[in-house]
Design goal:
The protein is mainly alpha-helical. It contains four helices and no strands. The protein has one domain. Helix 1 runs antiparallel to helix 2. The longest helix is centred in the last third of the chain and has 38 residues.
Length: 122
């Protein structure tokens, strides 16, 4: 479970420390790619909590989703059609669903932990 979180934290740290600037012309592609990557990270955390995490599925989804989303944004720019909105909707929806499952898991864990501590104190 810690692999996706560690990777995300290292990526954020490197992004803040390295002097890499994305040209404004590519900013929409990068934002869609980051959204797709975050969707993959939340999906990996959810899969780990459910006990069915697979590294190869995570890595292929991480890069595949990012390139697909950036490609859709590029194609939409060339066709002058906002195709990137489909990627925003799909990845955003999945990301929020995965976050909801993760949140429920941790809330359930905290509830069970507090019940166990209450039983020990009796």
């Amino acid at each position: 479970m810690w692999l996706p979180i560690l990777g995300m934290l290292i990526g954020i740290l490197l992004g803040m420390l390295l002097p890499i600037r994305v040209p404004i012309a590519y900013s929409s592609y990068m934002s869609i790619a980051v959204l797709a990557a975050l969707d993959s990270v939340f999906g990996a955390i959810r899969a780990q909590l459910e006990g069915n995490f697979e590294t190869d599925v995570f890595i292929s989804g991480f890069f595949g989703n990012s390139f697909l989303a950036a490609g859709l944004a590029y194609l939409g720019d060339r066709l002058d059609v906002p195709i990137y909105l489909a990627a925003i909707f799909a990845f955003g929806n999945r990301m929020f669903n995965n976050f909801a499952v993760i949140r429920r898991y941790f809330l359930g864990y905290l509830r069970n932990r507090s019940y166990l501590e209450d039983d020990k104190n009796k």
